[in-house]
Amino acid sequence: MSNEQSDLKAFKEGMGAHFAAECSGKKTETAQIYTGKCLLAAGLLYTNGTNDASLILYDGTTDAGKIILEVYAKGADGQGPFGAVERKVRCQTGIYAVLTGTGAYFLVDYVARV
């Protein structure tokens, strides 16, 4: 079974035809976003408009997992948002986010898998 077929099966069995992504809410520091199988829908990084910032998302419960998204932003380029995911990324263990940058924050959207 392909990844696409597996995702479709999971949606049909666990979430039905209609589903909505969950949002982490505004996070201002490194955090565990979700534990368990899920799909990453979006990762958005915001700066304070002055300081550079970065957001690295891992498939895991620590920063030792596989990197699934990296976003780097120059503070002088504005406040954001920076970064996104054009299609959902499968996560086997969860989503762990590492944030750097004074005054930075982020939002992560994900779909929990059953």
Structure explained in plain terms:
It is a single chain. With 114 residues, the protein is mainly beta. It has one domain: Sandwich (Jelly Rolls). Helices cover 11% and strands 43% of the residues. It has one helix at 3-15; strands at residues 22-23, 31-35, 38-46, 53-59, 66-73, 89-91, 94-100, 105-112. Strands 1-8-3-6 form a four-stranded antiparallel sheet, with no helix packed on it. Strands 2-7-4-5 form a four-stranded antiparallel sheet, with no helix packed on it. A hairpin with a 6-residue loop joins β4 (53-59) and β5 (66-73). The protein is globular and about 35 Å long.
What does this entry show, briefly?
This protein is mostly beta strands and 114 residues long. Helix content is 11%, strand content 43%. The protein has a single domain (3-112), classed as Sandwich (Jelly Rolls), CATH 2.60.120.
What attributes characterize this protein structure?
1 helix, four-stranded antiparallel β-sheet, 114 residues, single chain, mainly beta, Jelly Rolls, 11% helix
Secondary-structure blueprint:
Layout: H1 3-15, E1 22-23, E2 31-35, E3 38-46, E4 53-59, E5 66-73, E6 89-91, E7 94-100, E8 105-112
Antiparallel strand pairs: 1-8, 2-7, 3-6, 3-8, 4-5, 4-7
Number of domains: 1
CATH architecture type: Sandwich
Overall pLDDT score: 84
Strand order of the largest sheet: 1-8-3-6
Unreliable stretches (pLDDT < 50, length at least 5) are 14-18
Report, as a whole number of angstroms, the end-to-end distance.
18 Å
Fill in the CATH topology: Jelly Rolls
| N to C succession of SSEs | HEEEEEEEE
The whole-angstrom Rg is: 15 Å
What overall geometry do the principal axes of the alpha carbons give?
Answer: globular
Largest sheet: 4 strands, antiparallel
